[in-house]
Amino acid sequence: MTTTIPYTPAVEDRTSSLPLRLVLAPAGTAPALLDGAWWPRSRDLTAELPALTAVLDPLWGRITRVTVNPTFWPVIPRKVPVDGHVVGVGWFTAEQDPHKLLLLSYRVGRWDLLVIPPETSPATAARLMTEAADPLGTLTASALMNEAEQRRIAEEMELSLVSVWDSEGGHGASLPTSRSPARAVIAQVPDTTKGI
């Protein structure tokens, strides 16, 4: 069972009026490789982090630090102001999975979230969010993303094959709606049994 938190701010959000797309593993489950998934609407950490930490602060204790891998984040601010406090932002290239966001809290500890790229289709994002929040999950963030990419390629290949099949008269080919009747040829056949 997963918990979906559709974050709708009580006060108007400065970055967006759209709900936060976040799924967390059920509370009290054994630690897994990932604690859930976050599907930001952009790659702008300054715009995206305030809404995320505003939801997580009451659940996990005040988030004080976030780390990312810079592979997918074009700009990494050193600090992001969040509802009365500042969250420090750091980055690691080799040490951190490029598809993961690491959150730290002074009181409680650390959480790892899969970061789903903003351009991901809703169906793929929903599947990834469910898999990342599974407390029995054994895949890393990059492994989940690789699996999703392989699935996307297979689906595109299948669609391509169906398209070729349709273009060659397969599934989409239509039968003629009306046929002109075959013309009957009426002729007298000579009787060869009579003598000439």
From TrEMBL:
InterPro entries in the record: DUF5994
Pfam families: DUF5994
Protein name per UniProt: DUF5994 family protein
